[in-house]
Amino acid sequence: QSILLSLGKESDNIDEHLLNQLAKRRGIVTLSSALDSLEIKNSYHYGVLFLFEKLFKKFGLTSALEDISQTHSKLQFNFNKAIFTMVVSRFLSPSSKLHIYDHLAGQFFPGIYINDLDLHHYYRSLDILSQHKDKIESQLLKYNKRHKNISTDVLLYDLTTLRFESTRTKAGELPQYGYSKEKRSDCTQVVLGLVVDTEGIPLFFDVFPGNTYEGSTIKDISEKLKKKFDVRRFILVADRGLFSKSNLEEIQNTESQDDDILKEFPFEYIVGLKMAALKKNAEDFYDISKYTSINEELAFYETQYEDKRCVLTWSKTRAERDKKVREDIINKIQKKLTSKTKATHFVSNTNYKKFIKGLDSGSPELNFKAIEEESKRDGFFGVITNIPKDVYTAEMIIGQYKSLWIIEDAFGEIKGTLKARPIFHWTDERIKGHIIMCYLAYFCEAQITKVFR
Hints:
Layout (H helix, E strand, L loop, with lengths): L13 H13 L4 H6 L10 H12 L2 H10 L8 H14 L4 H6 L16 H13 L1 H14 L7 E10 L25 E9 L4 E8 L8 H11 L6 E4 L6 H9 L6 H4 L4 E6 L8 H4 L6 E4 L2 E8 L2 E8 H23 L5 H4 L2 H4 L2 E2 L7 E2 L1 H8 L4 E6 L8 H9 L2 H13 L10 H25 L1
Parallel strand pairs: 1-4, 4-5
Antiparallel strand pairs: 1-2, 2-3, 5-11, 6-7, 7-8, 8-11, 9-10
């Protein structure tokens, strides 16, 4: 006996082994054997570039950037390509412009996306972009309204903060210290105000200095919205951070001097209500027997706040959350009391003060009466609106306000997935350009999400 040919070990893919071994004896190269000897030295991005090239054309970004390029006839580089590269980079590997220049752009598929940009071209592109913010927003809005990609009946508005890894406040007007929603009081920041539709498509944004009070932004936003949106009627939905009598008047009464039609149609709004403002007949607002149940988890009660509709709600989920927050605070207070913390250490924390008595005498202790009163308010929340009852029922008002999660999700994507912060630019112009670039990236993401939702 003698071995004529070894076909390998018996296995599930014995047919493939047989084929390869017989082909090898006959001098034939199969695809499988060729792949085994294949060595990959370099790989390039192509699919994502192809996708975003189509997205830019589909949603009017390409034409908007081309129009801007034409107004800067002396440009010595491809402005459109610089913006495209930076936007795509937020999805591939969100990083600095230097990293894009040194590494990422070189990984774009050669022969189609040639990397012929210098580092300063990216920075210069941001400066140009900041000069044409209104033009980009207007063109995107017109294009997408024409193609029915967006809805402007109900608009969601909220604010967040974007931090810098810096303490510099003199480089421009925008980087300032302020209330940080990221709990980073050690960094300067800017305030970002964003308007999206009910499907998360961004329609408009503005950037304010980092020390801007939320409520003071409503005048600028309401004026710009009326100028930008050529519609007879729409509803602005905002969180309770914007609640104040003056803000509600701004929303309702702001008029555009450029369009007489809009003067006849004041803004309608649904704004979160600060329950502490309801001092008159407050005990009625926390009487659950007056509420109408929608289901086991939610109930509502409609009343008046001055001359406006006020829809109060009770939510089981909110009640559980309020109870948990209060218990955590009380546990922290008890630990401080046990360790004989000085009374002055409680004064600076407003969450602690309302549950403590004896601060003036220097003998702090838990205020059980205040704790009991606070527990009666668990789960209650309210919104205020100027929309008539025959147009929107209370249930519809509640539903629209709950849609604010959409804009919170948008902030999560802008700050998380696309990593718009921390910001490493210092001049106001370049800061705005960076945020516009991130805004365009989120615009593309939101459109993709809408298609596959």
